[in-house]
């Protein structure tokens, strides 16, 4: 069997490895090799979707609306769900100042009124919706909070937290969130499906050139990846890594076992089919907020050919 190399762009840094656990499992256990695929992982300094758009990668992950941005339009499509939030499963979290949790201010989402929320980029649909859903449950909008621009990580975020400039902020990587909790800046307030049940929060994306050039390889890549997902789900069936899976996951993710036992497992779905109706609903929300380019149809963003053709039921 001949081997085809697929260049996969991931978020950079060791602490991001946990986000790609199924990918690393599938590589380590030979599932890609079984399909005649060699995976070359790249860590672009900017974003996976940017790397795909400039031809430096074939595949990666991102949120659905990135493909509509003018600089990326036509360069990639979402082909499968990489993470779907569910009760007790999902890596993203909302972190809050401990005082606001202890004094009951954030007992419900309505307590967000007047809070200072850290938002890396209000134009990004996934960041926007991570706050939009809890605000909506609290009967609030972005007009009821103070948005403070702050990145997902780095010294600027650290300074904002240390100076008390942020009340609530998104945590994307469990290791970094745990550090902020240990330092006393934050505590986990909402995580996984508590943000929004069944929300498709990340997608596997393929470059349109890759799709046109190698559709059979596109299908094979997803088959192998989903075998890794199945192993991950089996190893975390209790909601925590089991005794056999824990050391293996710790080695692949470069995370301490203690962290893996104290954070929610990833919401990597066994059924990776895209819920088109839910995507349309999300796009309508971000379009209403003025952060989705007008006139970009959904079929420019999604290609359903590489997973079963019919969509699944999702959020109501």
Task: Explain what the structure shows.
- The chain is an alpha/beta fold and 316 residues long.
- It folds into 2 domains: 4-85 and 199-306, Periplasmic binding protein-like II (D-Maltodextrin-Binding Protein, domain 2); 93-194, 3-Layer(aba) Sandwich (D-Maltodextrin-Binding Protein, domain 2).
- The chain contains 12 helices and 10 strands.
- The chain has a 5-stranded mixed beta sheet with strand order 7-6-8-5-9, sandwiched between helices. Strands 3-10-4 form a 3-stranded antiparallel beta sheet.
- Strand 6 (116-119), helix 5 and strand 7 form a beta-alpha-beta unit.
- Helix 1 (21-28) packs across helix 9.
- The longest helix has 21 residues, at 215-235.
- It is globular and about 65 Å long.
- The model is unreliable at 309-316 (pLDDT under 50).
Order of helices and strands: EHHEHEEEHEHEHEHEEHHHHH
Percentage of residues in strands: 15-25%
CATH architecture identity of the largest domain? 3-Layer(aba) Sandwich
- CATH homologous superfamily assignment of the largest domain: Periplasmic binding protein-like II
Structural class based on helices, strands and sheet pairing: alpha/beta
CATH class of the largest domain: Alpha Beta
Proportion of helical residues? 25-40%
Largest sheet report: 5 strands, mixed
User: Count of DSSP E strands?
Assistant: 10
What is the overall silhouette? globular
Q: Distance between termini?
A: 45 Å
The number of helical runs is: 12
Could you name the ranges where pLDDT drops below 50 across 5 or more consecutive residues?
309-316
Kindly report the average pLDDT value: 94
CATH topology of the largest domain: D-Maltodextrin-Binding Protein, domain 2
Radius of gyration, in angstroms, nearest whole number: 19 Å
* Total domain units: 2
Strand order of the largest sheet: 7-6-8-5-9
């Amino acid at each position: 069997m001949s081997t085809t190399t697929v260049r996969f762009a991931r978020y950079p840094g060791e602490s991001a490895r946990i986000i790609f656990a199924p990918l690393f499992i599938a590589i380590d256990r030979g599932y890609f090799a079984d399909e005649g695929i060699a995976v070359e992982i790249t860590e672009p300094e900017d974003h996976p979707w940017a790397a795909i758009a400039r031809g430096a990668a074939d595949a990666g992950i991102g949120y659905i609306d990135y493909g509509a941005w003018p600089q990326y339009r036509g360069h990639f499509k979402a082909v499968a769900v990489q993470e779907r939030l569910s009760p007790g499963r999902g890596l993203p979290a909302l972190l809050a100042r401990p005082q606001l949790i202890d004094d009951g201010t954030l007992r419900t989402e309505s307590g967000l009124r007047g809070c200072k929320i850290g938002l890396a980029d209000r134009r990004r649909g996934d960041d926007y919706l991570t706050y939009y859903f809890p605000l909506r449950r609290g009967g609030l909008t972005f007009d009821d909070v103070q948005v403070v621009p702050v990145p997902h990580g780095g010294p600027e975020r650290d300074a904002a937290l240390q100076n008390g400039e942020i009340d609530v902020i998104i945590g994307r990587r469990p290791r970094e969130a745990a550090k902020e909790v240990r330092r006393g800046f934050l505590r986990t307030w909402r995580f996984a499906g508590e943000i929004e049940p069944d929300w498709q929060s990340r997608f596997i994306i393929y470059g349109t050139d890759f799709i046109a050039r190698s559709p059979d390889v596109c299908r094979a890549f997803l088959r192998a990846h989903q075998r890794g997902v199945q192993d991950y789900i089996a190893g975390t069936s209790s909601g925590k890594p089991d005794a056999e899976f824990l050391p293996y996951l710790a080695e692949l993710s470069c995370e301490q076992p203690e962290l893996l036992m104290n954070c929610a497992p990833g919401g990597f779905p066994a059924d990776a089919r895209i819920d088109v109706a839910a995507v349309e609903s999300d796009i309508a929300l971000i379009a209403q907020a003025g952060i989705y380019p007008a006139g970009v149809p959904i079929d420019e963003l999604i290609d359903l050919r590489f997973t079963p053709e019919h969509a699944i039921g999702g959020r109501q």
